[in-house]
Design goal:
Shape: globular
Helix content: 10-25%
Number of helices: 5
CATH topology: hypothetical protein yedk fold
Number of strands: 12
CATH superfamily: SOS response associated peptidase-like
Distance between the termini: 25 Å
Strand content: 25-35%
CATH class: Alpha Beta
CATH architecture: Alpha-Beta Complex
Amino acid sequence: MCGRYSITTPGDVLAEAFGLDDVPELAPRHNAAPTQALPVVRAEGGRRRLELLRFGWNPGGGPLLINARSETAADLPAFRAAFRARRCLVPADGFFEWRALPGVKKRQPYFLHEKAGGPLALAGLWEQTASGGAFVILTTAPSATVARIHDRMPALLPPARIETWLDPRTPTEVLAGLLRPAPDDALVAHPVSLLVNDVRNDGPEVSRPLF
């Protein structure tokens, strides 16, 4: 599951990284969480633009869905139409995962980010809902780095795969091949404090190394 992440990268850096025509003005979100309005990149009419959409949707009035498994999203009714026609990127500085430790009641949170520090492109799907646009993040099998913490991770799109992912003409069978685990050396992880567990904590301290 990927339910928390950070997006504090300045708008001009996002515009250059993701080929946006306009430079967005965004408030930093150190502890981005479900139900919040968060930035995603969509392609329309041959142009890419960044918009704020709600993290998670409730198909048919059911429970809130925030993630979709990349292995089954193309076939499940909740995600099938979006997988074929409404794909997006979810920009992130990094994401949080929690590790269960023997004898410890509360799981230990970790922050995972690119070794070089650049923005990540998480693969996402978006949908038009009664209250506006919403998105989910696609997950895949973990890299070796993530596997020590959690059994799933967001599907990360390197720059060479972004155009194919956003292109509405890309066949479904090609799309599935884009959603592979990140290389083992692509990410670094460090433990962080339990402050991240509370969505009201939205400052840089939530992703600061614990030691």
